[in-house]
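Most newcomers find our protein records easier to grasp once they have seen one. Sequence and backbone structure share a record, each on its own labelled line. To make this concrete, we reproduce a full record directly below:
***
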Amino acid sequence: MSRLDRKEMALIVDRLRRFVAGQTSGSYPQLADDLQNYSRQCEDVNRQLQECLQLYQQGYYLNAAAAAEPPESILLDCEQLEFQGADVLGSVAAVHGHAEPAIVQRDWVAALNEACEIKLKIEPDLCLLRQLTLASRPIPARLYKMRQIFERIPNHPFLEADIRLFERTWFQEAKMFCLKQPEELRQTLLEEVLEDLTSGRYLEKPPAALLETLRTQRREVLRSSLPPRAAELRELHERLGGRELLTQAEFWFHEGRLDQFQTSDVQRFVQLAEAWTTACTSCGQMPDSGEFGLAEPLDHAQRISRAEQILLQHQAAVDALLQDIRDNQCGIPRLQQRYQQAKAIRSLDQTVEKQFRQRVSWLRIRGILRIVLLLLAVLGVLGGCAAVAFMF
């Protein structure tokens, strides 16, 4: 016998619900047929739910949820067949001499609902993972998405094993993968790969031999980049004035010209010097060795960087002092502390000195006035008491 459509089933469920709730007046001649149709519908739904449950228990969440796709949705059927009093339908049927009908297995419905929720959570990641796979993207990109999915489904029966397999495959390919990249991209790529492998995100432990090989490759790439780096640093040093650069920097420092230290060329010069030092340290080379003739540019860059840092610290201290000068709640001890902190770095501008001294003088005068007013108030009270005493 074919399944009833939802409209017919809704009428049957409504009659049974009203009958169980005692809302039916008179006889119920369709009771046997309604119980039979209801039971048959529940059995059919339960068979499908059991198939979904088996898939769910095996970790095939998307396959389990596929059974709930419209238009013939199992979840919609379950919702329709569920009503208050369905649990006692068997007892009611027995009282009237009918066989106990089947009802929807609620635990199985809960499993299907959870599978649908998991599907909604991971479907975007799975779509992107499929795209990455079809586009032959590097394994780390695919591993990243697999880990995200695993975080959402930690009890997945085989995803962890897949991740471990992909990680071992990546360990075998990582060395040649970096060497195949264009030379101008190789250094950045090696840095990223090493950071990724040592990040602690891997379930499998990266082989020590692989890490050492990648570090050796990085040192070699850095060594090969030293001559062009040195040439760029020397050229910029000469463009900024060469030996005269340090004299200019001393003048800027004396005048407090922080803006001159922060011009693009000066900033670029300092950054190149810092990058040079880092690269040399990473590949076991002395930064100021005579091989590249960078002793003077590196010395200038270091001094300029120190001078800029002092000016920045001084500017921050002055800003803090001026803020306290404008703060009506700030007292003399705090102002003096701010003043000493700023002055300890370098001498203050005359304008700032003047504002500080005016503020301190005003605070002292205000303190004296408060004392005078307090004394006058006390004398007034004493005078009043004396007058009262004299009257009596």
